[in-house]
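Regression test case RT-17, inverse folding.

Input:
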């Protein structure tokens, strides 16, 4: 099983950053929360900070963990470790994604998401409804 981290980045308006996977990559054309693999010797939090700097050119404060998701794709099984994040430096840029966009929880269904991200969307919706 491969540990993969993702950042649930919220802006001050209750919107979340969604990223479109580029052509030619696994899960191309699907939306996801940004992140990547945890390297050997890395904590999930430091891996996420590294990945978001590489993918979006932003520095983040990694906050609370959300529920992990175990998902099996054809060739591999991942444990997706989502964390709430807040941008502390930089403006997000689509450096490794086709495009990026901010969306409210009620707009999540307008996008076609990678299947492993769907439980995270549901958790965000339930947390937003509880606040």
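Golden output:
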């Amino acid at each position: 099983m491969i540990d993969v981290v993702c950042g649930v980045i919220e802006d001050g308006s209750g919107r979340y950053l969604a990223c479109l996977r580029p052509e030619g990559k696994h899960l191309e054309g699907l939306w996801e929360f940004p992140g990547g693999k945890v390297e050997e010797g890395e904590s999930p939090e430091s891996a996420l900070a590294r990945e978001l700097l590489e993918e979006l050119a932003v520095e983040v404060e990694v906050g609370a963990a959300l529920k992990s998701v175990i998902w099996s794709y054809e060739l591999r099984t991942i444990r997706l470790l989502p964390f709430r994040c807040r941008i502390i430096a930089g403006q997000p840029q689509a450096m490794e994604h086709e495009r990026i966009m901010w969306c409210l929880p009620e707009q999540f269904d307008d996008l076609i998401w990678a299947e492993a991200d769907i439980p995270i969307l549901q958790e965000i919706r339930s947390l937003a409804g509880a606040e």
